[in-house]
Amino acid sequence: MLLSFCIAMGRPNNEANFATGFCIMSADSNTFESVKAVILSAHKSTTSEEKVGFYNRWAENYDQDVAVLDYRAPSLAADCISSHFSSVREAAVVLDVACGTGLVAKHMKKLGFEHFVGVDGSEAMLGRARESGLYQDLKQCMLGEEPLPVRWGSFDVVVIVGALSAGQVPISIARHLCNATKPDGFICMTTRSNQDNLEYKAALDSELRKMEEEELWTCLEVTEVKDWERAVSEKEDGYISGVVYLYKKL
Ligand SMILES: C[S@@+](CC[C@H](N)C(=O)[O-])C[C@H]1O[C@@H](n2cnc3c(N)ncnc32)[C@H](O)[C@@H]1O
What we know:
- Helices cover 33% and strands 27% of the residues.
- The protein has helices spanning 32-41, 48-58, 62-68, 73-84, 103-110, 123-132, 173-180, 198-213, and strands spanning 4-6, 11-13, 23-25, 93-97, 115-120, 137-140, 155-160, 181-192, 217-230, 239-249.
């Protein structure tokens, strides 16, 4: 039997009730079907408060749930940055935008990076990132509604993983990511290329190209990945595809 835990009420509940948006599965019940139900429940969120509320409730089980989905975007982004980064890693300062629980910093740390600043809209996600002990600083910010709360031109690497998609972080953030980066620094972004994100991805591609034409940055790598993560939508089977972009600020 699936055991869910009603976070809002603080008491166990023997029936998942995603319609209310109050219940998120406990760690010991994270089967593929339960994780899929959690993610599909997010589609009911329309306002920013509802979207942040979804991530606040998901924070506790996020790492276990995305492991069930075979979510590899954080390690793919870290590997992409690492393969181009030739300066001293220990000295580099990394801005992890929409950092969530800290999976990107966890992978980058394994590759020799040590200094991380994280930004996210969800206090509960930031709480998990704080517990990881990986970040020197963590800031709460609703991207697209508030300015990125960092000094311009101060980061060696700026990375955003798993948050550039329809209903999450708006495409306008791309210019802010570039502004936050030092000249010659790196900007790494990921997005999904499955059916429900195609329109967003096309608009993102167009903005990234436009910024290159404006000579704000140059594209170093665009890697299409077939087995990005397991599909959760009813319209797709198996794995969906995604993309890792790497730019260098001019
Ligand atoms: C799928 S998680 C990705 C987290 C982490 N980067 C990773 O790859 O595991 C998306 C994150 O983006 C954050 N997020 C989504 N939309 C946001 C927005 N408009 N402003 C700030 N944070 C946002 C969520 O709170 C969540 O932590």
